[in-house]
Amino acid sequence: MSSLPESIAGKTLAVLGGTGPQGRGLARRFAQAGFAVIIGGRNAMRSSEVADALSAEIGIGVAGTDNLTAATNGDIVLVVVPWEGHAELLTELKPALAGKIVVDCVNPLGFDKQGAYALPVEEGSATQQAAAILTDSTVVGAFHSVSAVVLEDPEITEVNTDVLVLGDDREATDTIQALADVIPGVRGVYGGRIRNAHQVEALTANLISINRRYKAHAGIRATDI
Amino acid sequence: MSSLPESIAGKTLAVLGGTGPQGRGLARRFAQAGFAVIIGGRNAMRSSEVADALSAEIGIGVAGTDNLTAATNGDIVLVVVPWEGHAELLTELKPALAGKIVVDCVNPLGFDKQGAYALPVEEGSATQQAAAILTDSTVVGAFHSVSAVVLEDPEITEVNTDVLVLGDDREATDTIQALADVIPGVRGVYGGRIRNAHQVEALTANLISINRRYKAHAGIRATDI
């Protein structure tokens, strides 16, 4: 990993909620990029099974454990849990996450027969909720709309999307942009302060509409940069 | 205009609030694509001056008048007014807009020294507000984040962005996608129902952040479609 920026080289990544498709997909791509990855989940046994299956498939060891152990052992922690348990889990893990960069990847969406829609969030967005709870961490929002199907597809070597990285701390957003860049095809792009996270989270609902209409796994690219 | 889809061929386009940079830029590009374009504004004299200046610059006649006259004479009406006067103007023009496709292009944004941010909108978004007022029109949201600087730059022949088109009426969204497609480089992409318009409007704040950081005039592209 000698070519990686110092901010991320040799770091251990924890993926909380890493047993779902999005978390598994990110874990896969980061493990393939050479990072030590720990999948966290509500149930350590289940996480361990998911990690073992992933490890066997990609031929690289990935650890699986409970969310607290993952949070404790990760240098950079990605939060990919369902929106329903978001506030509760982060409150519980607050001490374990102190001093770390926490990357919130959660999209607060509802679903009905017309598709997906953005849920109202009291704090404005999942990222802002995380920042309100994790006052001893540096919270960044990122990886909201990277297709889980694409991430988990071993045939897809280049993931054709930008990742908008939202945060109020320049060093942290630079770090997570660099982290996004390690996935082949992905480009980490600074997307604004966390007060502008809501629309990036909610845009995933539009991408779901696009996917339905065009039978695709759409991502987004910023042009002219 | 024989190669244009029937839904837009020969239509007159009204651009309400067309005296501002975004409206002027859209008027320019649609006039260049062969459409009859009427620029509307609060002040007919001012609109006429803007239209005359644009006509002289591009060598194509563009009309300028008050918003009511423009709304009355347009077959398809684009709303590019400041957010502050949005509800009031649409309420006033409701009878003139009846039976027409109204394309809301308005981004309800606030600005402070940290940049742009999304304003809360009671109806959810400018597009939804327009739909709530204009119950006799078919409201579509589109053209939210096409850079005015790019649209107005005569040196830029290809505008490198997708336009997300939001609406609940398939025929109307198809029509406005076709309209977006007439601007060289632009692709009209269905972006979901109007309940998902907020985040597309608000995303313009993120693009402003991107523009600041990268010294660019960013647009967005959906990938994999």
UniProtKB/TrEMBL annotation, chains A, B:
Organism domain of life: Bacteria
Chain ranges of the Pyrroline-5-carboxylate reductase catalytic N-terminal domain: 13-108
Single GO biological process annotation from the record: NADPH regeneration
Membrane-spanning residues: none
Keyword Oxidoreductase: yes
Keyword check for Oxidoreductase: yes
Annotated Gene Ontology cellular component terms: plasma membrane
Keyword entries, A-Z: Oxidoreductase
Molecular functions (GO terms): coenzyme F420 binding; cupric reductase (NADH) activity; ferric-chelate reductase (NADPH) activity; NADP binding; oxidoreductase activity, acting on NAD(P)H
Listed InterPro entries: NAD(P)-bd_dom_sf, NpdG, P5C_Rdtase_cat_N, STEAP_metalloreductase
SUPFAM superfamilies the UniProt entry points to: NAD(P)-binding Rossmann-fold domains
Stated name of the protein: NADPH-dependent F420 reductase
Species annotation: Nocardioides marmorisolisilvae
